[in-house]
């Protein structure tokens, strides 16, 4: 919201010499954020004055263009030129070449004299052109930075101005004013008006405030106004789409009357472009009071004005000249010929005020914020009106705003207000809130007294009545729809008395407590993966249904995937919550690869969302009071199970330890090792078996088990999946249920003692059936080797020449060590032989 300083001074005691920065400094005290300062005069410097055209001589040129050689008086008649400088004639008459033709001798225009600087650092100097020395320029509104029209120069008479030559044009056009821009939070829609900001300034400075709404005298209803019918009797969003509507008729309007410079200047400073007098008056009142309104050409209306929901297939051409197909939930203003506008969002072009308009019907109504907000988003049609309605507008303003528009149409456009008014509906008024006088102190720690509470709430416009036992009955002001429960009143008290009054006290942590076991284990895992060279990323938990179906379950199925659907998704293509972390993690990997980072090892940990039998609750308990154990239990039952998962993804090469040497290509083994690393950090052991998953390569997939339960998968992505996701062809990944491993991890993870005796290493290569998993054979060798076996590692898998069909060779490195002595070769060989013998018994393994 931009606040012209000249405007706010009308309703507050803002000092005449104060700046926009001073205004923002005061508004920050009451919670309004500062944004920017707008000063048109910063882009307009030097002599810019009013000139009177004395002579105008058209001169055709060889290029087919006709220019005008003009003599323009820029000083009062009979007085010498007070300005000095290169190119400024002491006589007060300047010779100027002008290419525009929309002015005549005697017209008053804006002249930028040599030494002036216009927006865009356009400097005015005497220059020879078309055979003359042009000492200045007759300016257009575009060159002055106050409009877009560049087809002709600005003739001041069209604005109803007849100033004396030499008058300062910057001051005349209100370009010496400035505006402070503030950011308005969604709960404080009243601050989208000069009325609301002026009231906040008075709170911040403890000065008086003049309410502009109280300066309007609503006239008596002398005759029935234009017929209005409220047809929205079945509210869609819980409240009627329109609970009050005022229509006031003004006749004899001159729509071509010029907009006064003071009004046009304020509109421009407030960020709105002057269009025509009726439209400018409508916008001016909206900015002043915060009540959007609309002007209809009465002669273009057919039958009664009706407020209803849109009909199936109904279309509307809005004021931006775009045809829009309306939705059945759109609230519209209509007549017998169809929709006239989307209520609270934007009017239609059919009944737009034009140069032929003589009778205007002024509409001011109160619309449901939810209906307006959804229509605005549905049609992607942001507007100043919607910005205010969706945040809540004072329901008592329509009659005042309609009268204010009518008064200005009478004053500036020559209209007549005969008191033809229609008022339908009953606005919803704020409900009384019971406030415990001790609640503000309990919540903030500040000992507010009863008098201070009453005074503060009264200052915002609330009506406060004292009751017995320290309870206050508070009726919020009509312009504060955000005040609906006691805690919101406490926030107002804290805000206006000062947030700096709230004491800062750090809670004392109970002795002997620290991180929980789960927190400690999570940190161990995250730190360990980072130390192993993986980079942590975070992704959104919102997925498409296809991604959830692909990664959320191992096998393909025609049955729909059970998922948690979002009522209001962040984007239409992401309507569900994730059941797997991998889609978001792989998207982060894809994005990095597309930017040239080909060698990647990423990991992410977070919750997944698994639907249960109950999804949410039918009703959400209100705030401000404890809902009870039963309501809490129902809420808990409706919350989906959210186990903690960890996932990792790999692409490209692992960095080489040697300079100039290519690194090892990452593959499925890296994904399996990352899963094992997580288990190792937690002091537990995974059971890695051959597995299958629809998103993974059928021959390079490991199923991760713990305590007999499947808790994840690791391996190389299926080539088709990698291609569809624009990932490198040999991308590998893993995901497992971290919560299961954390729960099973011991309270203390003890390191194994390091033996000081040397190890003995022996290799063994066994020929087994091709379908025997290497992990199964490894488990058998470990069991057969006994306690002397310190580690076992698979280092070769071979099939081909020398190996019969259906068989494969698995080669392991076995390392033996004793804790109390140096092993002999015979002891190591005996342990190795025992392992081979057990493998032969169980798997018919033969040494190669």
From TrEMBL:
Gene3D superfamilies: 3.30.56.10, Bira Bifunctional Protein, Domain 2, Ferrodoxin-fold anticodon-binding domain, Nucleic acid-binding proteins, Phenylalanyl-trna Synthetase, Chain B, domain 3. It is an enzyme of class 6 (ligase). Its cofactor is Mg(2+). Residues 428-504 form the B5 domain. Residues 42-170 form the TRNA-binding domain. Belongs to the phenylalanyl-tRNA synthetase beta subunit family. Type 1 subfamily. NCBIfam families: pheT_bact. This is Phenylalanine--tRNA ligase beta subunit.
């Amino acid at each position: 919201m931009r606040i012209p300083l000249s405007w706010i001074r009308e309703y507050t005691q803002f000092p005449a010499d104060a700046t926009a920065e001073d205004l923002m400094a005061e508004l920050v005290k009451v919670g309004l954020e500062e944004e920017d300062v707008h000063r048109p005069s910063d882009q307009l410097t030097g002599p810019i004055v009013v000139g009177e055209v004395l002579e105008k001589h058209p001169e055709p040129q060889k290029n087919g263009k006709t220019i005008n050689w003009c003599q323009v008086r820029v000083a009062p008649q009979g007085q010498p030129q007070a300005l000095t400088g290169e190119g400024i004639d002491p006589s007060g008459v300047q010779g100027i070449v002008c290419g525009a033709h929309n002015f005549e001798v005697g017209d008053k225009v804006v002249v930028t004299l040599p030494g002036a600087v216009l927006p865009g650092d356009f400097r005015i100097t005497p220059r020879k052109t078309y055979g003359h020395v042009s000492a200045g320029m007759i300016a257009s509104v575009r060159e002055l930075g106050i409009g877009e029209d560049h087809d002709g120069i600005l003739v001041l008479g069209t604005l109803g101005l007849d100033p004396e030559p030499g008058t300062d044009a910057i001051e005349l056009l209100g370009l010496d004013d400035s505006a402070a821009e503030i950011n308005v939070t969604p709960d404080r829609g009243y601050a989208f008006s000069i009325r609301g900001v002026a009231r906040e300034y008075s709170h911040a400075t403890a000065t008086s405030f003049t309410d502009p709404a109280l300066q309007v005298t609503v006239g008596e209803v002398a005759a029935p106004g234009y017929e209005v019918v409220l047809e929205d009797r079945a509210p869609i969003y819980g409240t009627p789409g329109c609970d009050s509507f005022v229509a006031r008729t003004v006749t004899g309007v001159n729509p071509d009357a010029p907009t006064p410079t003071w009004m046009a200047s304020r509109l421009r400073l407030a960020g709105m472009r002057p269009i025509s007098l009726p439209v400018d008056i409508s916008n001016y009142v909206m900015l002043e009071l915060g009540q959007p309104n609309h002007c209809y050409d009465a002669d273009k209306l057919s039958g009664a004005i009706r407020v209803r929901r849109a009909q199936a297939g109904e279309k509307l051409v809005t004021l931006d000249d775009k045809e829009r197909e309306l939705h059945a939930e759109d609230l519209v203003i209509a007549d017998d010929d169809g929709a006239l506008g989307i209520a609270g969002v934007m009017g239609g072009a059919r009944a737009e005020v034009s140069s032929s308009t003589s009778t205007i019907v002024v509409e001011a109504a109160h619309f449901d914020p939810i209906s307006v907000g959804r229509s605005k988003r549905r049609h992607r049609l942001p507007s100043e009106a919607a910005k205010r309605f969706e945040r809540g507008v004072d329901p008592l303003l329509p009659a005042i705003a309609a009268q204010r528009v009518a008064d200005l149409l009478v004053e500036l456009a020559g209209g007549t207000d005969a008191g033809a008014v229609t008022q339908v509906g009953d606005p919803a008024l704020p409900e009384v809130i019971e406030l415990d006088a001790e609640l503000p102190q309990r919540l903030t720690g500040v000992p507010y007294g009863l008098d201070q509470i009453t005074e503060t709430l009264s200052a915002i416009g609330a009506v406060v009545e004292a009751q017995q036992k320290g309870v206050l009955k508070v009726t919020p002001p009509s312009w504060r729809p955000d005040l609906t429960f006691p805690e919101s009143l406490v926030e107002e008290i804290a805000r206006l008395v000062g947030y700096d009054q709230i004491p800062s006290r750090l809670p004392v942590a109970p002795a002997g407590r620290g991180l929980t076991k789960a927190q400690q284990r999570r940190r161990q895992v995250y730190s360990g993966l980072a130390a192993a060279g993986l980079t942590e990323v975070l992704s959104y938990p919102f997925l498409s249904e296809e991604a959830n179906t692909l990664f959320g379950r191992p096998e393909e199925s025609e049955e729909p995937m059970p998922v948690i659907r979002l009522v209001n998704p962040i984007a239409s293509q992401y309507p569900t919550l994730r059941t797997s972390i991998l889609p978001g993690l792989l998207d982060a990997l894809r994005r990095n690869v597309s930017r040239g980072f080909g060698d990647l090892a990423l990991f992410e940990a977070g919750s997944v969302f698994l639907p249960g039998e109950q999804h949410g609750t039918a009703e959400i308990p209100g705030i401000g009071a404890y809902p009870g154990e039963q309501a809490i239990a129902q809420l808990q039952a409706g919350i989906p199970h959210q186990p903690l998962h960890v996932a990792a993804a790999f692409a490209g090469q692992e960095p080489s330890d040697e300079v100039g040497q290519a690194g090892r290509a990452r593959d499925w083994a890296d994904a399996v090792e990352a899963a094992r690393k997580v288990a190792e950090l937690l002091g537990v052991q995974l059971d890695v078996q051959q597995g299958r998953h629809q998103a993974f390569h059928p021959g390079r997939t490991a199923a991760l088990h713990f305590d007999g339960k499947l808790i994840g998968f690791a391996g190389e992505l299926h080539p088709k999946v990698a291609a569809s996701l624009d990932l490198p062809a040999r991308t590998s990944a893993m995901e497992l249920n971290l919560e299961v491993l954390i729960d099973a991890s011991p309270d203390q993870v003890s390191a194994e003692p390091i033996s000081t005796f040397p190890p003995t290493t022996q290799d063994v290569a066994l020929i087994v059936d091709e379908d025997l998993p290497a992990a199964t054979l490894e488990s058998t060798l470990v069991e057969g080797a006994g306690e002397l076996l310190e580690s076992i590692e698979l280092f070769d898998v071979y099939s081909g020449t020398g190996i019969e069909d259906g068989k494969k060779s698995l080669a392991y490195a076995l390392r033996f060590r004793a804790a109390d002595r140096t092993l002999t070769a015979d002891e190591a060989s005996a342990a190795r032989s025992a392992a081979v013998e057990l493998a032969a018994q169980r798997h018919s393994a033969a040494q190669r």
